[in-house]
Amino acid sequence: MRQAGRFLPEYRKIREKHGIIEICKNPELAAEVSTQPVEILGVDAAILFADIMLPLEGMGVKYKINEGLGPVIENSIENFQNVLALTALDPNSDVPYVLEAVSIIKKKLDPHVPLIGFCGAPFTLATYLIEGHATRDFSKTKRLMYSDSKSWQLLMQKISSSMVSYLKAQVKSGVDAVQLFDSWVGCLSPEDYVKYVLPYSQEIFDQLRDTNVPCIHFGTGTSEILEKMKQAGGHVIGVDWRIPIDVAWQKLGFEVAIQGNLDPAVLLGDFSLIRRKAEDVLSRVAGRPGHIFNLGHGLLPNTPQKNVIELVNFVHERTEETST
């Protein structure tokens, strides 16, 4: 979950000289940032350092990343003509730097350490395109969704098709698993999720079947739509901290794996708190196969590095004891 997380001193040193998008578009820097957490924190997998906005540039979207605000879209979607203007992504020509970074990372990593690629889900990307920036109420998105089905359907179809191409290109370049980030889908009711989102996320997972790589489906605030997300697809369902992980798994059914779900803010406390909260997650899982211990979202910028290392060590020790 965004392992570098804006908190590693080594990452911050690079950020003093380079912007986020600049790092993403420099394969050597992206590879360095992607492998830092494995080397420094001892986590079990590397996550490709990229931004969910990168492929949108290849679709004709102009944007910039503002510190503290996130992506800001210069040409936001307001009508059907705006949607028509979006072009199809060609990963090899539009995001070659991402694919080159994947190849470099795989060479840097030990063979037993997997690399996770990812993209933004159609709904989450659509919210940025329509709202123009991060939002709390998603009013513009829902207005288009409810009142202009023609534009909504075409927008979601175009995003879905491009994300399939993007993820397949990542797999071809060497990633071992992929994750679909639907960070803002928790703003929807179950009924709206099924009608306006599920078919498009489902299409992505369906198209990825022939890649034979594990697929992770993640969202935040999704307690009421977990079963629907499972229906959309994914070998692993990521859950945030707003629902006990055993309750989430019971909802999903144990035939799917589950990822999560420690609150990232816990890592701001002392280790006694971290240990107790992590133990609660592991106790609820009770050693059942198919659990990936993770945070419920990205690391916070002011997280003490020693707390993350201690958490990683604790989980490793605790799960090794359980498996023996």
Describe this structure as you would to a colleague.
The chain has helices at residues 9-15, 20-24, 27-41, 54-58, 80-84, 91-94, 96-108, 122-131, 139-147, 149-173, 190-196, 198-207, 226-232, 245-252, 271-285, 305-323; strands at residues 46-47, 63-66, 70-73, 115-120, 177-182, 215-219, 236-238, 257-262, 291-295. The protein is α/β, with parallel strands linked by helices and 324 residues long. α10 runs parallel beside α12 (198-207) and α15 runs parallel beside α16. The radius of gyration is 19 Å and the shape is globular. The chain starts with 8 loop residues before the first helix and ends with a helix.
Summarize the structure.
With 324 residues, the protein is of the alpha/beta class. The chain is built from 16 helices and 9 strands. The strands form 2 sheets. It has a 7-stranded parallel sheet with strand order 1-4-5-6-7-8-9. The protein has a two-stranded antiparallel sheet with strand order 2-3.
